[in-house]
Design a protein that fits this description.
Layout: E1 10-14, H1 19-31, E2 35-40, H2 44-54, E3 59-64, H3 73-82, E4 88-91, H4 99-104, H5 106-134, E5 137-142, H6 155-175, E6 180-187, H7 207-220, E7 224-227, H8 231-239, H9 243-247
Parallel strand pairs: 1-2, 1-4, 2-3, 4-5, 5-6, 6-7
Helix pairs in contact: 1-7, 3-5, 5-6
Length: about 250
């Protein structure tokens, strides 16, 4: 069960090698979290992450999870929930893709959509049902500011995040009053392996800053969290710009 401050004692990370997710896990372990499940494809990176978190004092386990295999999600997550209640599920998997390449190769674009949206819809619904069955818990979904208004430079990725964001908001409404809390997190440009080599956007942030915002959001039982918070105002303005003006912006 969560502590008096709304922080979880148990955590399931979907996307167990995500830098944002691991920064969040480290922060929560330093507070109260004692059991961590890392779900992802078996890899040396997943095992390293488990060892590093275990060194911080948590009981860390791994489970095979593939976002691109929705048929396996119920079985994979079922193994975790069969071992005991989970206070927090962090849906953190996703791919950025390569916009120029993806425009030329529709199959690559579809893979981005299937990972970021279709896989997340499947895993999100399975996790939500398990949380609802146990009667408590939070589902935190890593979205993106790109969901607010996809740009020419990354509309394949942005559209997949827009779908995920809308899904998570609707899921939160559907679960309202059930004891299950859904929180959507919208970071801007985050300095991670995924964005390495890309031109840094204004108001860039770090995995640790996103983790801090997630912790604060959990304490407040927020429904939407922007990282950094000033992006909420920036994106509100961009969202309402006339399309002809938006096209001419160097973004």
């Amino acid at each position: 069960m969560k502590d008096a401050f709304g922080l979880p004692q148990s955590l399931l990370v979907l996307g167990g090698t995500s830098e944002i997710a691991l920064a969040t896990a480290r922060r929560l372990i330093a507070r109260r979290t004692r059991t961590v499940w890392l779900a992802g494809r078996p890899s040396p990176a997943l095992e390293r992450a488990a060892v590093q978190l275990a060194a911080l004092g948590a009981d860390v386990r791994t489970v095979h999870f593939d976002a691109l295999d929705p048929a396996s999600h119920e079985t994979a997550l079922g193994k975790v929930f069969a071992e005991g209640d989970i206070d927090l599920v962090l849906l953190a998997f996703g791919v950025l893709g390569d916009q120029a390449h993806d425009e030329r190769d529709p199959s690559a674009a579809v893979r981005v959509a299937q990972t970021n949206y279709t896989g997340a819809v499947s895993a999100g619904l399975v996790a939500a049902r398990a949380l609802q069955t146990q009667g408590h818990g939070s589902l935190v979904v890593l979205s993106s500011v790109a969901a607010e208004r996809p740009r020419r430079a990354n509309f394949v990725y942005g559209s997949s995040k827009a779908g995920l964001d809308a899904f998570a908001q609707g899921l939160g409404d559907a679960l309202h009053g059930t004891g299950v809390h859904v929180m959507v997190v919208r970071p801007g440009f985050v300095r991670t392996r995924m964005t390495a080599g890309l031109e840094e956007a204004p108001l860039a942030t770090t995995p640790e800053a996103v983790a801090t915002a997630i912790e604060l959001g959990l304490r407040r039982r927020s429904e939407t969290v922007w990282v950094p918070g000033t992006l909420r105002v920036v994106m509100s303005a961009l969202r309402h710009l006339p399309r002809a003006v938006f096209r001419r912006l160097p973004i």
